[in-house]
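Q: Convert this sequence to structure tokens.
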Amino acid sequence: MSKVLISDKMSPLAEACLKQAGIKVDVITDLDKDGLLDIIGDYDGLVVRSSTKATAKVIEAATKLTVIGRAGIGVDNIDVEAATAKGIVVMNTPFGNSITTAEHAISLMLAVARQIPQANTSTHAGKWEKSRFMGVELMAKTLGIIGCGNIGSIVADRAQGLKMKVVAYDPFLTPERADAIGVEKVELPELFKRADFISLHTPLTDATRDIINARAIKKMKKGVRIINCARGGLIVEGDLKKALESGDVAGAALDVFAQEPAEENPLFGMENVIATPHLGAATTEAQEKVAEQVAEQMADFLNTGAVANALNMASVSAEEAPRLKPYMTLAQQLGSFAGQATNSAIREVTIAFEGLCGQLNCRPLTAVVLQGLLSPLMEGVNMVNAPTIAKDRDIHIREIRSDDAGNFQTLITLTVTTETQTRTIAGTLFNEEPRVVQIKGIPIDAKLGPNMIYITNGDEPGIIGGVGTILGDAGLNIATFHLGRSDLGGDAIALIEVDGDPDAGLLQRIAALPHVVTAVAMKF
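A:
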């Protein structure tokens, strides 16, 4: 009989569900760090919320542990890398909080529109300031939703019930999905221009960090109101403070902050700011859902080996793993490249496995490609859930296998079709080292480093010198510089590895060079 420890306070449904599945359960929620270390070696599974810290030291002491379940979404309190190295599956419950978080966003939107917390405080103080708290109606106003996935689509539905017009920015939102949920899909500048209220529901990634900053606020309607129940790092809090002081932003309602617990914050004490202490998931119903879901997932895994919402488990046997490892790295890099270069909704993904790799178990390779493709703009994507996420987003996936790889022994070609274009990238292995050998049909030979700049341009003199001068002036060293072109004077590309992280200003200067079309920073 498997044995599970529940080490954080949560709904009794978790314990009941595990016991019903024939699993022995101990509920010990007052363990300190040393206490957990002393007993963790007795358990096959560990269920946590956010209090228990499953550190590398705890995982090292967990001699029998095969699965850690998080009743909720975030796994910052779990050392996933250490768990993976030891073969411990880490799973979470990414959808249990959706309705609760969406309802909190709607509550904050109503509160900021009518200044309810401020009026409440004033009235309790014995004042009667009817003229002071003049609000605005939501009816016929435009709500701009940034990130229209599971939570964002629920917010859109509730807002439509309030007779609001909803526009949404989400690179992965297809026109068909937008029509189905009754929102108008727009680009981010259009959303800023039209929205009376803006609600954030996007994960925190390199692409979305600081998405609300001084430049963005300048594009917004004067008097816009901003709601954030997603991640604190989406907003530059200093820029928001200045905009609230000037009146460019009429009000803000925030459930999340850049630093949490937020015992101090530059926005605290401002008359036109409503703040709550990360209450997005704080309802009885949500806590019951995540407790029951994590227990069901862990019971299925311990009893049958079935996996749901795992963050780190690949469907690869022990025999296949060594052979697939370099291909997995190549597949992830190709997917990540395409994902970082894509900024419109993906309709179709075709992955061609040719030559030696066409004879392998390609399902995990496809999953890794999709993980790399979807990760730049989505949180929590992994090998297990990437195909499901793609299906939910109406992305059609095709696999093609062939024994013939042309001039290569082995070749993986990824073709991504979006609303606006079709992009291809291909790679091979040289002595088990991943190499990119084609982008957009243009031959190239490049190894991808941690920090890359991808440039598309016309094949004209002066590009290399101009780029080199800009990087040199910025003190950013070039590690490698790879070039390719379709033909003389035609389309050309460059992949440049740099010893640092290029900022937005540097990329803008490169993009402003004559004949340069795009300049994109990428991380691998």
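The chain has three domains: 3-94+285-304, 98-275, 321-523.
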